[in-house]
Specification:
Layout lengths: L4 E2 L2 E2 L3 E4 L2 E3 L7 E3 L8 E4 L2 H11 L24 H15 L8 H14 L4 H8 L3 H8 L7 H16 L17
Antiparallel strand pairs: 1-2, 3-6, 4-5
Helix pairs in contact: 3-4, 4-5
Length: 181
């Protein structure tokens, strides 16, 4: 993750995902490329996250390649182990946010996707933000997208009414009579 800086201060509105920390049991954490080509992405960051990150990073190394969660010992270029992260950063954050015990980091990904969908963002936008394909996103989150049967019927009906120069479904002044009724 790249955190751009301006004028010696940390300043950003997006986070660029260009590498990831790879944790292999029994080995030191290492930088690795993202899992897929789609995983390389730039994600817009809302102001509350910017403020929380700024507070977290206050007084830390100004090196743009330093880790958000460096290993204990002071070297900002060495990442925390997964175990250290969960003990030192994640579990206290879950407690402070009054989230249920057992909340996983991956649960934030699902929350992020759910919030985007609830706000009316389409599958392509959600997939892009998550670094997934639309197919994977729909397989995981299709149940959260609103049903649009009535809306799609109305849209196509309005199009056909204009094309055929006939009253639309919302025009009730000249409703046709059904024969045999």
């Amino acid at each position: 993750m790249s955190v751009p800086r301006a004028g010696g201060r940390r300043s950003w509105q997006t986070i660029t995902v260009a590498q990831q920390t790879e944790w292999v049991k029994g080995a030191a954490p290492a930088l690795a490329p993202p899992k897929t080509q789609r995983s390389y992405r730039t994600v817009p960051v809302p102001r509350p996250v910017i403020l929380a990150l700024a507070e977290h990073l206050d007084g830390r190394s100004a090196d743009p390649d330093s880790f958000l969660f460096p290993a204990p010992g002071g070297d900002p270029m060495v990442p925390m182990s997964r175990e250290q992260f969960y003990k030192v950063a994640w579990k206290p954050a879950v407690k402070a946010a009054k989230m249920p015990a057992g909340t996983r980091l991956h649960d934030l990904r699902h929350t992020y996707a759910s919030v985007l969908i609830a706000a009316g963002k389409g599958p392509k936008t959600v997939a892009t933000r998550l670094g997934d394909t639309v197919g994977v996103t729909m397989a995981t989150y299709a149940h959260l997208f609103p049903e649009e049967d009535e809306d799609t019927r109305a849209v196509v009906g309005a199009f056909l009414a204009r094309a055929l120069n006939v009253p639309s479904e919302t025009d009730t002044t000249d409703s046709p009579q059904v024969r045999g009724a």
